[in-house]
Each structure stands twice: as structure tokens, then as C-alpha cells.
Amino acid sequence: MAVGIFDSGLGGLTVLEAAQKRLPDVDFIYLADSEHAPYGVRTADDIYELTCAAVQRLFDAGCELVILACNTASAAALRRMQEGWIPEGKRVLGVFVPLIEALTERDWGDNSPPREVDVKHVALFATPATVASRAFQRELAFRAIGVDVEAQACGGVVDAIEDGDFILAEAMVRSHVDALMRKMPKPQAAILGCTHYPLMLDAFQEALGADVKVFSQANLVGESLADYLTRHGDKIGSGEPAYLTTGDPKQVSNRATQFLRRQITFTAA
Ligand code: DGL
Questions:
Q1: Mutate to test the pocket of ligand 1, among 6, 7, 252 (most ligand atoms within 8 A of CB)
Q2: Mean model confidence pLDDT for the chain
């Protein structure tokens, strides 16, 4: 029995890990499209095609439900997939909504009209494609009014993380936070809108200062997946747990093992 988790690369492992902790009896098939990462600098059409191919691979492996543990795919492709691509009976969920529900203090699936919330100034850090899609602002507008969002496209951070170059990634995080704070000097909250960024959580928090509440997705998505599966147990699917990659399995396994500090073995997708 397995739920599919997809990311362009290794960032979705932050979501996978939280989901495994929250749901120890559920198996997961993780797919990293390492050959085509990063997605954040690609066009929306390209991201759509690549995401459909990856999700199809997870359906073929027996998954009924696939989590897009990738904001870039959730922002640029999910809506289009839901409008006509997803096969009957299958389900694909993104990572945006749980985060926005947490920010706007809503319960899962609360679809009441938008209302005023405590947080008024929000910094969004995400990939260039996610920022360009404006999907975060769109989803937020369904739930909250009067929130000022300043978005910073964090070019280069995902590449540095995928290359295992954390010194470069940290320097880039500092410079992106500086750039954001020139536009919005006092954000009350910051959203890490890319599943790679929790790996740099300390660098973001330090650069932003202790007063800024930093929201990152992993635990929020774990919780909402648990909630979803209690209501849709039939979506657990079949298939054996696995780590699949479209890239070089040896290299991807080494990086993943370094990130999660436990042995992770990828095989070819
Ligand atoms: N980790 C992904 C995200 O959440 C993808 C980053 C990328 O491939 O550029 O956006």
C-alpha cells in the first residue's frame, strides 16, 4: 500500500519525512525527477508536461493518490492537471493549501468567505516559476483580506542544494532575504514556498530575525495528509515502497543520505 510523493529533486524529502513520522503505517513511493531539476526556471508548459509524466509513473507503480511535494509543480501545473488530465478515481494534491490554511488560521477544508487575519505583512520565498504564477496570492485571496504579500524569487538556491553546496546556498539565502527586506522591511511572517528550503531553515530564520514567524510546509502537509487519509482510506493504493529517480541513482542516493542523515537508496524510475 503506497502513497506517491513527487518532487523535481530532493526537496520533497522534507515532506516525505514528516509524512512518514505522522503516518508510520503508510508506505510511500518517492519520485525525484532529478534529470529535469530544477523546475523553478522552466516554463509553465514544460513544468506541466514533466509533472504529468512523473505522476503517471507513480500511478503505474500502484499509487491512487500522489502528493506534489513541489510548490513549483503545484503552482504551475496542478490546476491544469485537475481540469482535465487526472484519470478517473485517482487524486493529486498540492502543498500550497495546507500552508495557506495555517497562515490564515483555518481548519482543513474551511471554505468560508475570506476574512481579516492577524498577519498583515507576509514575505514569500519561492522559485522564479512559483513567484511568476502568483498561485500563492490567488489561493490566499480566497481565504484572507488585507494581507500584503512581497514575493522574492530565490534563483540559484535549489541548484546549490541539489549540488550539496550548502555554503553557497546559505550565502544565496542571505542575499535573497536582504533583497526582500529592502522591499518589505518588517515582515511578520515568512513562507518558505519551496520544499527544498526547509533544509535551509536556520539560514532563513537567522537572516530574517527571531521576530519573524517562519512557516515551512513539511509538518503541515503531513498533518493534512493524515486528515485526508482518515476520510479517504481507499486512496492508500497498492505498490511497494521505493525511492525512484530519473537521474543517476548513485549520486541521488548519496545526496539524499547526506540530507536526511540516514541511508536512502534510490533506484532508476
Ligand atoms: N522543491 C520544489 C519546489 O517546491 C522544486 C524546486 C525546483 O525544482 O526548482 O518548488
A1: 7
A2: 93
Q: Would you say residue 269 has pLDDT above 70? A: yes
Read off the pLDDT band of 237 (50, 70, 90): low
Q: Give bridge partners of residue 7 from the DSSP assignment.
A: 32
Ligand 1 binding site (Cβ under 6 Å of any ligand atom) = 7-9, 11, 37-40, 70-72, 127, 130, 158, 194-196
CA–centroid distance, residue 113 to ligand 1 (Å) = 30
Annotated catalytic residues are 70, 194
Q: Are 197 and 157 in contact (CB under 8 A)?
A: yes
Helix/strand/coil percentages in the chain, nearest 5: 50, 20, 35
Q: Please report, for the domain that includes residue 248, its CATH number.
A: 3.40.50.1860
Ligand 1 centroid – CA 109 distance (Å): 25
Segments forming the whole domain that contains residue 206: 97-216
Q: Output the pTM of the full model.
A: 0.92
Dihedral angle sign, alpha carbons of residues 185, 191, 197, 203:
positive
For 188-216, what is each residue's pLDDT tens digit?
Answer: 999 999 999 999 999 999 999 999 999 98
